[in-house]
Amino acid sequence: MIDVGPLARKLGAYVALSEAELKVLETMHRKRQVFPVRRDMVHEGQSNQSAYILAKGWACSYKILPDGNRQIVDFQIPGDFLGLRSVLFRTADHNIVPITKVEASEVAVSDLLTTFSTSPRLATAILWAASRDEAMVVEHLVGLGRRNALQRTAHFLLEMGTRLKLVGLGTAEGFYCPLSQFMLADALGLTAVHINRVLRILREDGLLVVHNKQVRFLDRARLVTLADFDTAYLDQDGPLLR
Amino acid sequence: MIDVGPLARKLGAYVALSEAELKVLETMHRKRQVFPVRRDMVHEGQSNQSAYILAKGWACSYKILPDGNRQIVDFQIPGDFLGLRSVLFRTADHNIVPITKVEASEVAVSDLLTTFSTSPRLATAILWAASRDEAMVVEHLVGLGRRNALQRTAHFLLEMGTRLKLVGLGTAEGFYCPLSQFMLADALGLTAVHINRVLRILREDGLLVVHNKQVRFLDRARLVTLADFDTAYLDQDGPLLR
DNA sequence: TTATCCTATTGATCTAAATCAGTTTATTTA
DNA sequence: TAAATAAACTGATTTAGATCAATAGGATAA
Predict the structure, then answer these.
(1) pLDDT in the model for residue B2
(2) Contact check, Cβ <8 Å, A73/B128
(3) Is the entire prediction scored with pTM above 0.85?
């Protein structure tokens, strides 16, 4: 079997893609670019921004408040679109920065629109993926509003695990995670000091271990209960539609 | 001038719409329905849900956690789409409930897709509006993660004011707001008790008054500073594109 | 190979917001 | 129009997570 790449793999979880559709996806990966760590790819206020498909590495989208505080809105992993809203919105309303070295393909919005009209199944799959990403932002919001530090952290790590598994970068047991405790803190609306304590509790309770940029789930069942994690779109094997 | 309805008014802030495009929008408002207060229009887990355009009244989308806690994700006001993600996602991942009596028009997704291919300008405008809504969810997330109760509340009320002004339901001075302090609390990740105290502080500081379901901004400049409110897409008069 | 920086870790203390326990004032409803 | 219910408001107390202040281990740079 050929390597279909993370995006095709992700969309394939939704619809079984034909050879022709895979070809279209392939053509979207022409202009591959490399982005170094810690240098903003998209900057708030920038206009005429491009959209990208992330092929390798991790990035994150964030906002900075006037007091210097940062809130990470979402992490982008291989197979994710990046900066789509900035394009539609004409001006970026947030920043995007690589966490590791990133490889990404620039996608012209016009190409995307063409794809939409010529390949409706692919279009549905892409919209499905976009809706799923939005649903994750919503879940993140719910966590910040109504979950305590422990549940929030557990939920976040379970979700990242699920996302990574979908693109073949993780298993039910764990995943490689290049995030520092400071980044976790900025995503979860906590301080790094508190994240450190939360991770200790999770470890001491035998729920999960984070060590050497590696997350390992020790007791997934109890974690899922603790975090009220919805496994609906996880317990799925093969595409939803044929 | 004819009444173009809240959606046309909102989209008109982005592109100047032609007579033909207004006609298309009008046909989307055929199947008008009325929904009573406090009876879920969309329920989590429901599948084959319809999408709606809200014509009159307020609704909100929310999630309930197992401990009974509620997090309101967003409020929907006239001109907003409602349940779009549920349609694309095939199963609703959240609930939507009317806060006041609601009038909404059912939109078949097929109609929407037709509109997209026949009227590209309208399509862009709708995507712009959708991006804007998503940007507001993101801003909400940032507030929950990194703003204190006072800034968060101020920011939220300024934002609602801006949204309502865009559809002609508010002015720079204030707006009608049917939300109880409990609903504000569920949206802002606080308790009703604390919302009450925050509103008192805002009142005593001469910043804004909430009374009789009416929000009045007393010192907009200071509010904007306090909340770090981005007025970029507010200081706009007439459509962005022609 | 020492100095510098970043990340992880821990203890002590502080504080914003929650919780608890009411009273008061509006709305519904009967 | 009285009774019932929901919403607004307030004080006292508690607590989850922040802040402050260090220590220590790797990694990077010079």
Answers:
(1) 58
(2) no
(3) yes
